[in-house]
Amino acid sequence: MRLTEFHELVRNEFGQMRGDALLHDHVLLDLDGRTAAQAIEAGQEPREVWRALCVEFDVPPVRR
To answer: Matching InterPro entries, A to Z (predicted)?
Structure first.
């Protein structure tokens, strides 16, 4: 998954403002206690970060 696709998925699922806040403010235990933005900056694959967000926020499987 490309980073642009990741950002599009976040925006479509959570909305622009909430999605931005989730990426920068919400700490995910599945990402070693980092935010999604920190995990991506550290080199984690966007697909893995997207999956962690989906699990954390109970995104239905059809939209994952």
So the answer is: DUF3046
